[in-house]
Amino acid sequence: MGLINPDFQTLPELFTSVFSHFRGQADKAPVARKINGAYAPISYDALAEDYRHFAAYLKQRGIEPGDRVAILSENRPGWYLADMAILSLGATDVPLYPSLPPNQIEYILNNCGAKGIIVSNMLQLGKVLSIWPKLPELNMVIVMNKLEEPVDDVVDLAQAKIEGKKSLEAAPWLLDGIKTKPDDVATLIYTSGTTGLPKGVMLTHRNLCENVKSCSTVIRLDETDSSLSFLPLSHAYERTGGYYLLFACGARIYLAESIETISLNISEARPTIIFTVPRLFDRMKASILKSVISEGGMKEKIFFWAVSTGDKYHKQLAAGKVSPILAAQHNLADKLVYSKIRKKFGGRLRYFVSGGAALPQKTGEFFQSIGITILEGFGLTETSPVTHVNRPEKVKFGTVGPPVSNVEVRIAPDGEIMLKGPNIMKGYWKDEAATAEVIKDDWFYTGDIGLIDADGYLKITDRKKHIIVTSGGKNIAPLPIENLILDSPYVDQTMIVGEKRPFLIALIVPDFVKLRDFAAENQIKAASPKELIANKEVVQIYEKLLKSISRQLATHEKVRKFLLVEQPFSIENGMMTPTLKLKRKEITSKFSAEIDNLYNALNMVYNTE
């Protein structure tokens, strides 16, 4: 069926048309969340009523078209409610990651001149109260959780809805006559800032609506579909794909309780589609392999035979002809292995959609070989965000697929990917110079390097600003080398260093679960991560790994030395952005002394040879 209303031009039009379509159907629900250990759905009628009441409250509090209202919350029903209410007033919402510290929240709220903010709980409220005196334009704070005791000038969502309902009863015309135009700014999404201060990306209603429409022709969804939501709604990828697209097609969104409960929630929600990031696949692959290897014996042999059979089957399928013997073997592997894995994912999963970072080719091929399809896509916040996605009928791992229907692509002479289409942002908020740097003659310069293959599928080779130029003048893309290192089960995270240096070195965060298993098997007594990474036998694992990788690389791409890091790179320690991208400058700066020591030691060796 696809889109319920294929003609919507603004997000309020989308919301209104979907709510009208499902009016009176109590068994239909756009959202379900966990209450007392079970998923409880929220009907379309209940959500529509709530958002109108909340919109009336915001209107009474002075929110006008064009005003900015921030949302600082984890994924929960109140997030959708706040978004719908703000947009229905012609205002602009500003989503903030709940992991942000107060000083970054203060910068964004001041930069966009937010009039109001809706927060999820007391923790987030505490952050806002601590910076409120420095926010002259902020005059409204609403908390989604119930206020147990009064807080000056703060109201909770339940109270706001009650007051909004009263306002609507007294003045039924209160929300009439608000005209939102396609080119009005719907949302200001601040980029996570791997370099410098975050910039506010202005996405219009047209940008988001056109992106939803083009995605709906690739990822076909209807009322029988459902998804599990755990990526932050503050990110454009989850917002467009995991919210607006699903809502526009009448699919149901199940809210995961947390990142830790994803496996359990998948089996309960039984989704047909999941939007996620590559790091989750690494964890799932490690978990599947660990479980298989721990069982050992015949079960382990059958599993690896099934993986090998699946791999051969999909290669022959891509070539256009599968031999009858292999088809029969594949059917048997399906009964013995693939069907059991599908059951762990709820038994209804059609495909995962992967974005936000590069999916290692081997990871995609592994899941395909066990009967799980991953559609890798590409896009940026500035492109609303989806510009490319692999097609279910033809998946090519190592690429992000062809462009969606209304996006044009060009590769600049230096390899930079350029994009054009109705999904390209209006610009950066209050930053004409930064806008002019990336949008020239209607073409958006992505900052990514790539190439287009004979089938029109795009392959991203690296970020332009991540390209390492060695002291010898060699240009090296770190991402392909990092992916080779990440293929090892003993590696959790890695980052290549070598800017203005004579050769490359790698910072490696080991997979400590795997290392502890290795230590136990080899009678290595090492209690802490620090002791483990200092152990000679452990160090040899990584020496062998880099030696084997070197055979696949040009001389200037070889990683000569490595540093084992005991603390993972995370959002909390400032080494990753909220979208789980490495903050390369911060990491390089934090380990600068250790990096210098490695280079100095190696330089001495090289100079004496």
Automatic annotation (TrEMBL):
Domain of life: Bacteria
Originating species: Chlorobaculum thiosulfatiphilum
Protein name: Long-chain fatty acid--CoA ligase
GO molecular function: ATP binding; long-chain fatty acid-CoA ligase activity
Residues of the AMP-dependent synthetase/ligase domain: 23-429
InterPro entries, per the entry: AMP-binding_CS, AMP-dep_synth/lig_dom, ANL_N_sf
Keywords carried by this UniProt record: ATP-binding, Ligase, Nucleotide-binding
Gene3D superfamilies found in the cross-reference section: N-terminal domain of ligase-like (3.40.50.12780)
Gene Ontology CC annotation, any one: membrane
